[in-house]
Every structure is written in structure tokens, then in C-alpha cells.
Amino acid sequence: MLYAKYNLAAAMVLYCLSGTAQVNRSAADTAIKTRELEEAVITATRSERRLGSVSVPVTIISQKTIRQSGSLRLNDILGEQAGLFITSGYSGAGIQVQGLNPDYTLLLIDGEPLAGRNSGVLDLSRITVANIKKIEIVKGPSSSLYGSEAMAGVINIITNKPPATSAGASVRYGSFGTSDINLQAAWVQRKWNLSAQANRYGTSGYRLEAASAGQTQDPFHNYTFQLKSVYRFSPATQWSISTRYFTNRLTTTPYATKDASGVVENVSGQATVNDLNINNTLEHRFNQAVKTNLRVYYTDYKAVNHQWYTYADSSANTTLYDYFRQGFLRLENQTDISLGKRLGLIAGGGWIADKVQSNRYDDKDIVTKNNQVGYLFAQAEWHPTDTWSVTGGLRYDDNQQYQSRASPRLAIQKRFGTRLRINASAGSGFKAPDFRQLYLNFTNTAPGTGYTVLGNTEVAAGMQRLQQQGLIQSVLVDPATIQPLQPETSTGINIGATYDFSTALRVNLNLFRNDINDLIVTGAIAQKTNNMFVYSYFNVNRACTQGLEASASWQFLPHFRAEAGYQLLYTADKDQLDKIKAGNEFGRDNGVVYRLTTKDYKGLFNRSRHMANVKIFYENRRGWFANIRSSYRSGWGVSDTDGNLYLNRGDAFSNDFIQTNASAGKSFANGLYLQAGSDNIFNYRDTRYLPNVPGRTWYATVGFSFTHSNKTNNKP
Amino acid sequence: MTMKKNTYYAMLIAVAAGALLTACKKDKATAATTAVTAKAVSNITADPALTSNHYAFYSLERGEAVPYTDSASNKWDIAFRSTTIIINGGTSGPGLGGAFVQTGATFDDYATVAADSSFRLDNIATPVFAIPTGSGNGWYNYNTSTNVITPIPGRILVIRTATGKYARIEITSYYKDAPVTPDAGSTARYYNFRFGYQADGSKNFK
């Protein structure tokens, strides 16, 4: 820890020296000159910068795009971006960035992380987009600024800060009884801003196949409340408090089915999620060159899941009860120092206390587990000339439970004239083992299952207990040989170019490569007498993802804008690939066994080789707007069906997926807002592999907003 | 699905016929060993719930199922219960049986049992089985995401029978009627396999 501090100091001194040598050069403007109106981005460097001056890959989704696209939840709008793959499953909607699992993307609301991942997935549908000002997506490892989880990138949701006293309401209703209601009010004074938002979202759910037992999507409804207060003591000092509360209730529509032994069982259930976030920030600017902020953040996430299986013979009744609660407290300070026009520094540090209470760690009782992390970070942004920019960052995380970690990142930008700029960045990322991987002690008691999962620290005691109970048939891995889990680590490289053919046409290209080491995977360690297995977690695999992202935006005719995006992706489990290269691995295609070659190997599961989208937006001065948006994903590997556990020719792949959404509406000058649309207008369905896609849906929205004074509202 | 199943059987027959043809050709050339024909076996019921917890016994020599009442004899060579396979030898039976799992080989390519091969014996007490139990250890992998058990491609069970002859076995499916892509709805614990039995006591299958 101390050693790293010295390293940090040394790095900073180095940057300072190189900076002062250049200080008498002419002023460099970090804003790109070709597009004066370009948006600001904060997530890439933890400091507000013009998008064009940032040397790592960043995508910004504006409130206007979110609104006009008719999105309701975060997964709706992220799913329309090329290269972002929305995963679906028991844990909800997750996100893949550059082909990396949802576990490796950090999700922030106003710069603060959300808690409550389930099997590594943070369910994006927990987040309403109703009060979002913009979404910033930074791709590539960002652990140098954000620490654990920011291996694939960071998604930062920036919520609204209404610029004027205003009030508004909107109601939307659509297919499957899906409704979304929003209320918003803001009171803006010279010193004090107060704003409140409320959202209710609900759906009756749907059933994709009439014959299926139970609903494909059970009905649920949720509420999101947000209250923000910003008080300015002086032009230099402000204090803000933001509170967000989310509550969701899902009810399993009762149904009868047959259990593994063919006996009729009745299934019912209820799942609730509660999520509270409180963010307290004090900001002060000492002078033109130095500003600092102090943040205290608390979040409390609680998920309770109850499933009841009842039988005619009530003695056979079983209950599945799952309780998971995570509390997270963070103190953080960040100071920004500008040393002349050519050098900017940020430095900061913080402390995190993470606490989890769950019955997953003891099979029965609710057990509490704690962890603490202390961290320091620093970043220097240096402009040696008007066209060069170099940004270097380093963060050190000192984790109480496992190995500490230093994460560097270096990013370089070079501008050629006013049209072309080239970016290159390299960095390292990490993800600390989570509570589940360390402490899980879980036996699935749902009928037809019966397997056990033991976290890394629970293996020895857990196996001993199972053996004493006589439940172990054979031991496959001696618990004494299982090593403590280490953080998963990665290195990522991004090289990209942006070219402005004109002020109306911009093209962007980015090549990326991510290498992950010590990937944590589950593996069987014993077989139980019920023939099910006992699993634990191991740092074994190495994986890589690489590919290319391309995007173009084009303003054409007076009122049209087109956007197109594409991602080409190659992935591999490097250990699997090595074995296949050795030539002694086989696959089975339609019953015929064949020797695997690297050509037959299809990489990691759940990845699309090609993803693309095309969007056309129309908007005129009288407030009319219309758009059509199409997304494509080539088929992805769903599961291993030939028993070699590789994804290869002959395994189960989904079909190619195309979804087209359209929407149109009008914003009236008096504040009235009307919109109607349809998602999935060509009714694409895949009941087997995409049960979260219900087919074509329709909706209509009516809203009204009132703004005091003649300040422009930032809503479309 | 029926289409696929038919294609599957057609392929199985084609492969068997292919093996037969090559065997005949070799025969003409060398005439050293007796021809080994590949035989496909389907739906051996190995569900303890349906077999009163008994193993399902099979004779490779005669190519037919053997009643469990003959379990203490040399009439059977191999027996199945759930994912466990026993061989008539060691503690499992009075025969001379043993076995090992050959990795990195296809059924058709596996022509000869290497002279220095060591056959393992069942030993219930340890317990150790000639065909190791557990996902990835023996003949199958268990897929945790689909809950499906699938024979590992490229693994051949090399068997020494109750009477000391040799056979090679490729398990093709663990599910009733061997669906190409078994899922949670498929009926498990039905062995489908093909085997070649060398009656002349040699270790050659071609």
C-alpha cells in the first residue's frame, strides 16, 4: 500500500516535470474545433471533456434519442447500440461489451455504482430511462479510474438536472398490459434546486407457447422515485443530495406441472427487489486551477425470492426461499488540478465497505459477510502540442479479502488537420472475486435438481459436512488442493480513428483486443449420491475477445439523420483453443464424430460474430418526429450438445436475429407530447432461445410538460 | 425432429456398413483375423426406477440383453445403471472383464488394442470403476446449463469381456430414441451405443 503510494507520487512528479517543460507553448484547446457543439463526456476521464478530445472509445446516447426511440428500461436503449449484446436469463438482462460477460462492465448512476448482481449480472431492466439526461458508454478497460468490474468498460447513467422550474407527466400504454407512468417536478432558484421524479412501470406478462407450463414472462410492476437537491453556498461551493429508490414485485402466475418423477405439482411464487441509493456530494472550487469534491455514497439492495411447490400429498411440499441483501458504503475524494493549459491532473482516493447478507452462504440461515477496499487513483492529461494528447492513469486497490491490484492505463490521441483524429489506448482491468464465488454454500432444492455449489472459502468445510452426511459418492477434486481465488485480470487495447468527411458525415473505426487471465469458472469437485454434482469456483481459464467496431452518422436532407453501426467479434477460450490445436479433441455433428480443428471451434458461448444496426431519424421544426431502427445479430452459440463442452460445429446455435422498431410523434409548443410506436414490427420470435422477445408490440404515449419562464427545456 | 432422427439412423447404418466394407477389404488383404461387424444398440433401459434398482446387463458376445438374474454368471459383459457402467470382472462379476477409456480416438479409427494397454477392474469397495464415473472423467460430460448428459466425442470404451475377448464401444446417446439434440424434456437413462466384438480373441478390430 505504502509502496504504491510512492509509485503514484513518482508517476505524478514525472508527469509534472514533463508538463512544466512544455508550459510556455501556445494554448491547447481540448475542445475539437470541427464540431463546436459537440457533447461533453465525464466518464472517460472522471472529468468533463469534449467528446472529441477523449482518447478512449466513448458512445453517448442522448435523452432525445432515448425519448424518440420509445425506450422504457435501460436494456431497451442499450440493445439498439451496435456491439452491445443484451443477455437474457434467470438473472435478468445483462450487457456484453466487446464480447465480455456482463460481470465485467461497471454500471454507474451519476458516477456511483449499483449493487446487487445475480450470478454476475446486474439486471438492466431495474433502471428506468424516464429521468435520464444521457448515457455514456466507455469501452475498454477502465479499472485505472474505477477499480473492480470495469474490465470491459463503464456505463454511466447521468440523470436529469432540470434547468428551470417545471412540471410534467406522461402516460404510456401498450401490448401485454404494459404501462409506464411518469411524474416530474422541479423547483429551480438562484441558490437551491429541487427536483423529483416518479415512475411506475408494469406489465401483465405474456406466454409465448400456449402449451407451456406457466407464463413465459410473469406479471410484475415497479416504482422508481428520485429526489435531488442542489444547494449553492457560493458560486464556488455546492452541495447535492440525490436519493433514488426502486421497488419491484413479480408474481408467478400459479400453474400445475409434473415434477421429475412425474407427480403433479402446483407452482407459485413471488419475487421482490428493493434498491436504495443515496448520494451526497460536496464540491468546491478553490480557484481557476483547483477543484475538489467529497462524496459519500450508500446503496442497499435487497432481493427476496419465494417459490412454493405444493402437492396433493402435502408432506411432499417444498419451498425455495432465497434472500440476498447487499449494502455498500463509499467515501471518496477527488481533486482536479490544472497546471497551465497543457497539463491537467486528477488524484483521489476512497474507502468502500461492502456487506452482504444472504441465506445462500449457509443453506438455511441468513449469514453476513463483509469486505473492505481502500483505493488511490491518479491521472495526468498532457498536451505536448496542439495536436497530441497523452493521458496516463493508475489506480491501486487494496482489498481486505484478496490480492491487491494496481491498474494502469495509457491513452494517446493525435489529430491530423480538422478532419482526422487517431486514438490508441491500453490498460488493465480486474474483477475481484465476488461474495458468491467466495462464500456460496447452496444446495438447489427445487424438484429435479439437488446439486450443491460451494464458494472457494467454503469448500473444505462444506465437503466435510456433505461427506459426514453420507451424500458424497465420489470426490473428483481433493478440497485440500483447491487454491484461494485471485482476482480475474485483463489487458485491453483499442486503436481507433474518426474522420469527418463534412460537418454532416462522420465515420469511426475501432479495433479492439481484450485478454483475460485467471477467469473464474465453475467446475465439478464431487459427485453426490443423488448423481448430482458439487461445484466450486476456480481461476483457470484464459480467454480473449477481439474485433472491430465501425460507426457512421450522417445528416442528410433538411431533417434526416442516419446512424449505422457494426461490430465484428472473435472470441476464444485460449486453453480450449490450445487443446484443439494439439489435435486430440473431437466433436459430433449429426451423430458423426469428427476431429476438431480450429476452424470448427466457434469460441465463447452467447457471442454474435456480426452485429449491426441502422437507424433513421426524422425531425422537423414543427415538432414532428419519426424514426425506424433495425438491429441485427448473427446466430450465437447457445449450448454444447455434443458433450465435449466446446462450442463447435454441430452444437446448438440460435438463428440470426433481426428486430425493427419504429416510432413517430409530435411535440407541441404548449408542452403537449404525443407518440405512438411499435417494437419488433416484423414479429421476430424465437421461443426456444429468446423467450424475452415477445413478438410485435404496440404502444401510445401522451405527455405534458410545463416550464416556468422562457428557459428552454431540454426535452424533445 | 423425426427427419433428424431418421437421418441419424441412416448415418448410423451407413457408418456401420462402412465399417463392414472396410473390414471386408482388410480381410481379403490380410485374412489374419475374423471380421468384426459394428452393431448399433438402442434404448437399453438403465433407469433404476424402471429396473427395480438393478443394472441392465448386456452380452457383447451374443449382442443381446441378459436378465439380471444371470448377474452372477459369465453370460454378461457390461451393465448399466444411470451413468454408471460396470464390467463383468473385479468385484462386479465372476468374469475376466476389465476396461479402460481410450481418449482421442474415433470408433472407426480405433483398430487395435495396444499390446501394453492396462485394463482396469471394478472395485466397489474403493469405489473405483473400470469406466470412471463423474462428468468428464469417463464416458460423458454433464452440461450444467442444460442439465443434459452427453457422451464425450472421441472417447472409446475398450472392453475385455467376461470370457477374455475384446470389444470396442462408442456410446452415442443417453436418451430414449437418441434425439440429436437432447433437452430437459428428453427421457434420460437410455443407453444407445454401437460396438465391435472380436470373437477370435485377438486385439484387432479390422
Describe what this molecule looks like in 3D.
The complex is a heterodimer of chains A (716) and B (206). By secondary structure, chain A is mainly beta. Chain A has one domain (2-582, 606-639, 651-707): Maltoporin, Chain A (Beta Barrel). Chain A has seven helices and 38 strands. Chain A has a 22-stranded antiparallel beta barrel. A five-stranded mixed beta sheet of chain A has the order 3-8-9-6-7. Chain A has a two-stranded antiparallel ribbon with strand order 1-2. Chain A is globular, with a radius of gyration of 26 Å. Chain A starts with a helix and ends in a 9-residue tail after the last strand. Chain B is α+β, with helices and mostly antiparallel strands and 206 residues long. Chain B has one domain (2-198). Chain B contains one helix and eleven strands; from the N terminus they run H-E-E-E-E-E-E-E-E-E-E-E. In chain B, the strands form three sheets. Chain B has a five-stranded antiparallel beta sheet with strand order 1-11-10-9-6, covered by helices on one side. Chain B has a four-stranded antiparallel beta sheet with strand order 3-2-4-5, with no helix packed on it. Chain B has a two-stranded antiparallel ribbon with strand order 7-8. In chain B, a hairpin with a 2-residue loop joins strand 4 (78-81) and strand 5 (84-87). The longest helix of chain B has 29 residues, at 2-30. Chain B is globular. Chain B starts with a helix and ends in an 8-residue tail after the last strand. Mean pLDDT of chain B is 83; it is low at 1-5 and 10-31. The interface between A and B is medium-sized, with 30 and 39 residues.
Q: State the CATH superfamily name of chain A.
A: TonB-dependent receptor, beta-barrel domain
Instruction: Give the radius of gyration of chain B.
Output: 17 Å
Q: How many distinct folded domains of chain B?
A: 1
* C-alpha end-to-end distance of chain B: 34 Å
Sheet with the most strands of chain B? 5 strands, antiparallel
| Counted beta strands of chain B | 11
Q: Which word captures the global form of chain B?
A: globular
Rounded mean pLDDT score of chain B: 83
Q: Alpha-carbon distance between the termini of chain A?
A: 50 Å
What does the oligomeric state look like here?
A: heterodimer
- Here the CATH topology of chain A equals Maltoporin, Chain A
* Low-confidence runs of chain A: 1-36, 710-716
> Measured on Cα atoms, how large is the radius of gyration of chain A?
26 Å
State the CATH architecture of chain A.
Answer: Beta Barrel
Highest CATH level, the class of chain A: Mainly Beta
